[in-house]
Amino acid sequence: MPIATDCLDEAEEWMRLLLVPNLPVPLALRAVQTFGGVSEALSAPLKELAREVGGRMAEAMRAVGRGARDDALDVALNWLTSRPQTALLPIYDPLYPQQLIEAGTAPLALFLCGDAEVLNKQRVTVVGTSRPDAEGRTNAADFGAALARAGAVSVAALEMPDDVGGAVLEGALSVKGTPIALLTTGPDRALSAISQLQHRVVDEGGLLISAAFPGASTDEHSRRVRDTLLANFAPMLLVIEAERNDSVMNIARQAADAGVQVGAVPGSIHNRAYKGCHQLIRDGAALVEMITDIGLRKAPAGKLMT
């Protein structure tokens, strides 16, 4: 199960490990396994630790173990203990999305707020442009609602309430669905524009997830990490609306390369906002017009659909 306030010592250990700058996940796991635990790895003799992770990483781990990042740690522990339904989901937990691990893009741990059991349900990631037109917003909300009615969980980015991600989440919540919202900020931060929706997701049984440490604000790195989560979080990714040069296209192709089934919603041939979706369909993505067009079977790596 995720690490919550009832296991505060364990949470503190893992948060310290997460605070080691630029520590690759495989090296972190190797050190934990070799020395028999997170605390043991962070306090291991420097020479022995260097044999496992290299000299520079060993020095960084020892520094964090001695308290070099305790200010940031205090922020994270305050978030964990002062808010309801908060937890840390380490990569070894059975609830951790297997698709992320298989793709080799899994962060060492994820920060959660809400009902973690939502991760046991079928998931479909829904993405689209950050500035959808009225049709795009309607389609996003309709698919969010339809997925919820079908018993699936929508996974969407939560950055602005009127973008595709916001509309998907609103659609799911409108029919008592329990969506998953992926954040670019730390789990304790929210722009005023999305604060209300963020609270609704948690209060109505959904889940907020962030790979960013508590206290962190949005930057290009956090967006790249969030986009990688979107690409690999579920067996299927649906593109609602995208131009040819939209960043969503990179997410879709990253998903396809990882073996995720990709679908796209078509639009008018006269509407440039759907040119990216049409290109994905030409490349082999499933043409999705309704909920029955969505499947969860994994595609072979490098294919846009099965």
Structural notes for this entry:
With 306 residues, the chain is α/β, with parallel strands linked by helices. Helix content is 44%, strand content 13%. It has 13 helices and nine strands. A nine-stranded mixed β-sheet has the order 1-2-6-5-4-3-7-8-9, sandwiched between helices. Helix 9 links the parallel strand 4 and strand 5. It is globular, with a radius of gyration of 20 Å. The two termini are 33 Å apart. The relative contact order is 0.11.
Approximately what portion of the residues adopt beta-strand conformation?
Answer: 5-15%
Tell me the number of strands: 9
User: Helical element count?
Assistant: 13
Task: Identify the overall geometry.
Answer: globular
Give me the strand/helix succession.
HHHHHHEHEEHEHEHEHEHEHE
Low-confidence spans: 296-306
Calculate Rg over CA atoms: 20 Å
Category from helices, strands and their pairing: alpha/beta
Specify the helix fraction band.
40-55%
Rounded mean pLDDT is 92
Q: Termini distance?
A: 33 Å
Main β-sheet: number of strands, strand sense, barrel status?
9 strands, mixed
Q: If strands are numbered along the chain, what order do they take across the biggest sheet?
A: 1-2-6-5-4-3-7-8-9
Oligomer: single chain
Summarize the structure.
This protein is of the alpha/beta class and 306 residues long. 44% of the residues lie in helices and 13% in strands.
List keywords for this structure.
306 residues; disordered C terminus; single chain
